[in-house]
């Protein structure tokens, strides 16, 4: 499989206890930045999937072939429904995490109860299996929706010319951090 084209990377940053700044960065396989958009999601909420769909719509870029998401539980367990995101944007979605984990269920059970827990567990249990991918001497963990595991690994490799972070996610994280810092500058 030869991966070419553009990917939308989505990452977040938050200093605010209620809202997390989200950036979407469109990056080509040759590492050129080709678009940016911003949004926010609620910390500890359940709006990540709908806000990511909205971010996609704001960019309105039919030439984007893949969506890469930094993790599956941004902004304190605002769990992303990867299959629903992939179906809605009609593109393969690949979530990339950077640390080994036994899973989110114990942390979810510790942080939430009742309907809040049930909703997050339901979304979490629908997520595709997480697979280890060796990447330029580093390890990442990948989940793909609307794409098989081997192709998801190839997408991650194609958008990671060096290091262990795919370029769309690296740029999106930098943009989210800068936008978050700007939002919290005194006087703004």
Automatic annotation (TrEMBL):
Q: Which Pfam families match?
A: Endo_dU
**Coiled-coil ranges (or none):** none
Question: What residue range is the signal peptide?
Answer: none
Domain of life, per UniProt, equals: Archaea
- InterPro entries, from UniProt? Endo_dU
Annotated HAMAP family: UPF0215
The family annotation for this protein states: Belongs to the UPF0215 family.
Q: What is this protein called?
A: UPF0215 protein ACFQPE_11935
Q: What is the lineage of its organism?
A: Archaea, Methanobacteriati, Methanobacteriota, Stenosarchaea group, Halobacteria
